[in-house]
Design brief:
41% of the residues lie in helices and 20% in strands. It is of the alpha+beta class. α6 packs across α7. This is Nitrogen fixation regulation protein FixK.
Length: 245
Protein backbone atom coordinates (compact mmCIF):
# COMPACT_ATOMS: atom_id res chain seq x y z
CA UNK A 1 0.00 0.00 0.00
CA UNK A 2 1.25 3.54 -0.76
CA UNK A 3 1.48 4.57 2.90
CA UNK A 4 4.96 6.07 2.46
CA UNK A 5 3.69 8.23 -0.40
CA UNK A 6 0.76 9.43 1.69
CA UNK A 7 2.98 10.20 4.67
CA UNK A 8 5.35 12.16 2.42
CA UNK A 9 2.61 14.18 0.72
CA UNK A 10 1.14 15.10 4.09
CA UNK A 11 4.30 17.05 4.87
CA UNK A 12 2.82 19.47 2.33
CA UNK A 13 -0.92 19.29 3.08
CA UNK A 14 -3.31 17.10 5.06
CA UNK A 15 -5.15 14.73 2.72
CA UNK A 16 -8.78 13.78 3.16
CA UNK A 17 -10.01 10.24 3.75
CA UNK A 18 -11.23 10.22 0.14
CA UNK A 19 -7.80 11.34 -1.09
CA UNK A 20 -6.08 8.54 0.83
CA UNK A 21 -8.60 5.97 -0.38
CA UNK A 22 -8.01 7.03 -3.98
CA UNK A 23 -4.24 6.61 -3.59
CA UNK A 24 -4.66 3.20 -1.98
CA UNK A 25 -6.85 2.16 -4.90
CA UNK A 26 -4.02 2.80 -7.34
CA UNK A 27 -1.72 0.13 -5.90
CA UNK A 28 -3.49 -2.88 -7.36
CA UNK A 29 -0.77 -4.43 -9.50
CA UNK A 30 2.40 -5.02 -7.46
CA UNK A 31 5.54 -6.83 -8.57
CA UNK A 32 8.79 -7.76 -6.86
CA UNK A 33 12.12 -7.03 -8.52
CA UNK A 34 15.53 -8.24 -7.40
CA UNK A 35 18.62 -6.20 -6.57
CA UNK A 36 20.63 -4.61 -9.40
CA UNK A 37 17.91 -4.98 -12.02
CA UNK A 38 16.66 -2.32 -14.40
CA UNK A 39 13.09 -1.23 -13.76
CA UNK A 40 13.24 1.07 -16.78
CA UNK A 41 15.78 1.62 -19.51
CA UNK A 42 16.77 4.85 -21.19
CA UNK A 43 14.27 5.43 -24.01
CA UNK A 44 11.46 3.32 -22.53
CA UNK A 45 7.91 4.63 -22.83
CA UNK A 46 5.67 2.35 -20.70
CA UNK A 47 1.97 2.99 -20.29
CA UNK A 48 2.14 2.74 -16.53
CA UNK A 49 3.83 4.68 -13.75
CA UNK A 50 5.84 2.78 -11.12
CA UNK A 51 5.60 3.64 -7.43
CA UNK A 52 8.21 2.14 -5.08
CA UNK A 53 6.48 0.56 -2.08
CA UNK A 54 9.53 -1.10 -0.50
CA UNK A 55 13.26 -0.98 -1.17
CA UNK A 56 15.61 1.48 -2.87
CA UNK A 57 16.21 2.28 -6.53
CA UNK A 58 18.09 4.99 -8.41
CA UNK A 59 17.94 7.04 -11.57
CA UNK A 60 21.19 6.84 -13.51
CA UNK A 61 22.95 7.72 -16.73
CA UNK A 62 25.60 5.43 -18.16
CA UNK A 63 28.28 6.35 -20.67
CA UNK A 64 29.27 4.07 -23.53
CA UNK A 65 32.44 3.00 -21.71
CA UNK A 66 30.42 1.81 -18.69
CA UNK A 67 30.93 4.75 -16.35
CA UNK A 68 27.76 5.46 -14.37
CA UNK A 69 26.41 8.56 -12.67
CA UNK A 70 23.56 8.09 -10.20
CA UNK A 71 21.40 11.21 -10.53
CA UNK A 72 18.71 10.47 -7.91
CA UNK A 73 17.83 7.99 -5.19
CA UNK A 74 14.32 6.58 -5.38
CA UNK A 75 13.01 5.71 -1.91
CA UNK A 76 9.74 4.11 -0.73
CA UNK A 77 6.89 6.43 -1.62
CA UNK A 78 8.67 7.81 -4.72
CA UNK A 79 7.50 7.46 -8.30
CA UNK A 80 10.12 6.04 -10.64
CA UNK A 81 8.78 7.65 -13.79
CA UNK A 82 6.10 10.24 -13.14
CA UNK A 83 7.68 12.30 -15.92
CA UNK A 84 6.09 9.92 -18.41
CA UNK A 85 2.73 11.56 -17.76
CA UNK A 86 4.19 14.44 -19.79
CA UNK A 87 7.18 13.09 -21.75
CA UNK A 88 7.07 10.46 -24.49
CA UNK A 89 10.08 8.48 -23.33
CA UNK A 90 12.46 8.26 -20.40
CA UNK A 91 15.81 10.02 -20.85
CA UNK A 92 17.62 7.96 -18.19
CA UNK A 93 17.48 4.48 -16.66
CA UNK A 94 16.01 3.41 -13.32
CA UNK A 95 17.68 0.50 -11.55
CA UNK A 96 17.22 -1.22 -8.21
CA UNK A 97 19.78 -0.88 -5.43
CA UNK A 98 18.00 -3.44 -3.22
CA UNK A 99 15.15 -5.85 -3.80
CA UNK A 100 12.04 -3.72 -4.31
CA UNK A 101 8.28 -3.99 -4.54
CA UNK A 102 6.71 -1.60 -7.03
CA UNK A 103 3.09 -0.79 -7.82
CA UNK A 104 2.50 -0.46 -11.54
CA UNK A 105 -0.22 2.16 -12.02
CA UNK A 106 -1.83 2.71 -15.43
CA UNK A 107 -1.19 6.28 -16.52
CA UNK A 108 -4.88 6.76 -17.29
CA UNK A 109 -5.86 5.66 -13.77
CA UNK A 110 -3.39 8.08 -12.16
CA UNK A 111 -4.58 10.96 -14.35
CA UNK A 112 -8.18 10.21 -13.39
CA UNK A 113 -7.30 10.36 -9.69
CA UNK A 114 -5.48 13.66 -10.18
CA UNK A 115 -8.45 15.12 -12.05
CA UNK A 116 -10.87 14.10 -9.30
CA UNK A 117 -8.62 14.97 -6.34
CA UNK A 118 -6.99 18.38 -6.88
CA UNK A 119 -5.41 18.26 -3.42
CA UNK A 120 -3.37 15.24 -4.50
CA UNK A 121 -2.39 17.09 -7.68
CA UNK A 122 -1.17 20.05 -5.62
CA UNK A 123 0.79 17.75 -3.29
CA UNK A 124 2.45 15.98 -6.22
CA UNK A 125 3.46 19.35 -7.66
CA UNK A 126 5.12 20.05 -4.31
CA UNK A 127 6.93 16.70 -4.53
CA UNK A 128 8.14 17.56 -8.06
CA UNK A 129 9.48 20.92 -6.89
CA UNK A 130 11.26 19.30 -3.93
CA UNK A 131 12.85 16.79 -6.34
CA UNK A 132 14.10 19.73 -8.42
CA UNK A 133 15.52 21.37 -5.28
CA UNK A 134 17.34 18.12 -4.42
CA UNK A 135 18.85 18.09 -7.92
CA UNK A 136 20.14 21.63 -7.41
CA UNK A 137 21.82 20.61 -4.15
CA UNK A 138 23.42 17.61 -5.88
CA UNK A 139 24.75 19.96 -8.57
CA UNK A 140 26.28 22.16 -5.88
CA UNK A 141 27.84 19.09 -4.25
CA UNK A 142 29.41 17.91 -7.51
CA UNK A 143 30.65 21.37 -8.39
CA UNK A 144 31.67 22.95 -5.09
CA UNK A 145 31.59 20.70 -2.01
CA UNK A 146 34.66 18.84 -0.85
CA UNK A 147 34.59 15.05 -0.70
CA UNK A 148 33.87 15.09 3.05
CA UNK A 149 31.11 17.66 2.60
CA UNK A 150 29.56 15.61 -0.23
CA UNK A 151 29.35 12.41 1.81
CA UNK A 152 28.09 14.21 4.91
CA UNK A 153 25.49 16.12 2.89
CA UNK A 154 24.22 12.94 1.25
CA UNK A 155 23.85 11.23 4.63
CA UNK A 156 21.99 14.21 6.10
CA UNK A 157 19.65 14.39 3.10
CA UNK A 158 18.85 10.67 3.15
CA UNK A 159 18.27 10.76 6.91
CA UNK A 160 15.74 13.60 6.58
CA UNK A 161 14.01 12.02 3.59
CA UNK A 162 13.68 8.72 5.45
CA UNK A 163 12.46 10.47 8.59
CA UNK A 164 9.80 12.15 6.45
CA UNK A 165 8.29 8.76 5.57
CA UNK A 166 8.71 7.16 8.99
CA UNK A 167 11.73 4.95 8.26
CA UNK A 168 14.07 6.24 10.95
CA UNK A 169 14.46 4.96 14.48
CA UNK A 170 15.86 7.71 16.66
CA UNK A 171 19.15 8.68 15.05
CA UNK A 172 19.34 5.51 12.91
CA UNK A 173 18.13 4.89 9.37
CA UNK A 174 18.60 2.26 6.66
CA UNK A 175 21.60 2.80 4.38
CA UNK A 176 21.87 -0.14 1.96
CA UNK A 177 24.23 1.73 -0.41
CA UNK A 178 27.60 0.19 -1.20
CA UNK A 179 30.71 2.37 -1.31
CA UNK A 180 30.67 2.04 -5.10
CA UNK A 181 27.07 3.32 -5.21
CA UNK A 182 27.98 6.25 -2.95
CA UNK A 183 30.93 6.97 -5.25
CA UNK A 184 28.70 6.83 -8.35
CA UNK A 185 26.35 9.29 -6.65
CA UNK A 186 28.97 11.80 -5.56
CA UNK A 187 31.46 11.74 -8.43
CA UNK A 188 34.18 10.22 -6.25
CA UNK A 189 36.25 7.05 -6.36
CA UNK A 190 35.49 4.07 -4.15
CA UNK A 191 38.83 4.62 -2.39
CA UNK A 192 38.01 8.28 -1.69
CA UNK A 193 34.61 7.36 -0.25
CA UNK A 194 36.28 4.80 2.00
CA UNK A 195 38.63 7.47 3.34
CA UNK A 196 35.78 9.89 4.05
CA UNK A 197 33.80 7.21 5.90
CA UNK A 198 36.87 6.37 7.98
CA UNK A 199 37.32 10.06 8.78
CA UNK A 200 33.69 10.47 9.83
CA UNK A 201 33.83 7.39 12.02
CA UNK A 202 37.07 8.58 13.61
CA UNK A 203 35.49 11.95 14.41
CA UNK A 204 32.62 10.22 16.23
CA UNK A 205 30.01 11.43 13.75
CA UNK A 206 28.56 8.18 12.40
CA UNK A 207 28.35 4.44 12.83
CA UNK A 208 27.78 2.25 9.75
CA UNK A 209 26.89 -1.34 10.53
CA UNK A 210 24.69 -3.99 8.91
CA UNK A 211 23.38 -1.54 6.28
CA UNK A 212 22.24 0.87 9.00
CA UNK A 213 23.50 4.42 9.50
CA UNK A 214 23.52 5.93 12.98
CA UNK A 215 24.26 9.65 13.11
CA UNK A 216 25.87 10.25 16.49
CA UNK A 217 25.88 14.04 16.21
CA UNK A 218 23.41 15.35 13.62
CA UNK A 219 24.08 19.09 14.22
CA UNK A 220 27.83 18.52 13.82
CA UNK A 221 27.34 16.44 10.65
CA UNK A 222 25.07 19.12 9.19
CA UNK A 223 27.65 21.79 10.01
CA UNK A 224 30.39 19.83 8.22
CA UNK A 225 28.11 19.30 5.20
CA UNK A 226 26.95 22.95 5.09
CA UNK A 227 23.51 21.34 5.16
CA UNK A 228 20.28 23.29 5.51
CA UNK A 229 17.14 21.15 5.32
CA UNK A 230 15.10 24.10 4.04
CA UNK A 231 15.37 22.87 0.43
CA UNK A 232 13.30 19.81 1.38
CA UNK A 233 10.38 22.15 2.22
CA UNK A 234 8.99 20.17 5.15
CA UNK A 235 7.06 23.06 6.72
CA UNK A 236 3.52 22.17 5.57
CA UNK A 237 3.61 24.87 2.92
CA UNK A 238 0.23 23.69 1.60
CA UNK A 239 -1.53 23.92 4.99
CA UNK A 240 -4.08 26.29 3.41
CA UNK A 241 -5.22 23.29 1.34
CA UNK A 242 -5.65 20.97 4.37
CA UNK A 243 -8.67 18.68 4.37
CA UNK A 244 -10.92 19.20 7.36
CA UNK A 245 -11.05 15.55 8.34
Amino acid sequence: MPDHLIRKLEHFTRLSAADRLALHGLARSVRAVGRHQDLLRDGDSPRHVSLVLEGWACRYKQLEDGRRQIVAHVLPGDFCDGYLLVLRALDHAVGTLTPVRVAEIPSTALMEVLDQHPRIMQALWWETLVAAAIQREWTVSLGQRTALERVAHLFCELFWRLRMIGLTEGDTCPLPLTQVEIADTLGLTNVHVNRMLHQMRGAGLIVLKSKRLTILDLPALQDIALFNAGYLHLGREGSHLDAEG
